[in-house]
Amino acid sequence: MAASSIFWLRIAACFYAVGLLHSILVLVRGSSVLYPLARGAFRIGATLQAVAIVELGMALGRIPVDNFYQTLSLCALLIAVLFLAVEWKYHFATTAVAHFPLVFVMTLAAATEPHVSVALTDVRGRETWLAIHIVLVLAGYASLLLTAVASICYLVQERRLKTKKPGRLLERLPPLATLDKLISNSLGVAFVLITLGLVLVIMWEFIYSGTAWISDPRVTVSLVTWALLVAATYLHARVTETLTNENGLALFTPVVIGQVLPDTPSFSGGYIVYYEHPVSGGLTMYAQANDHYVSAIHPYLGDPTTFGRGHDLGARIGVKSPAAHWDTSLWVTNLTDTRMLTYAFAGSEGQQVSFYQKPRSVGVNLTYTF
Question: How many domains is the chain built from?
Answer without folding.
Answer: 2
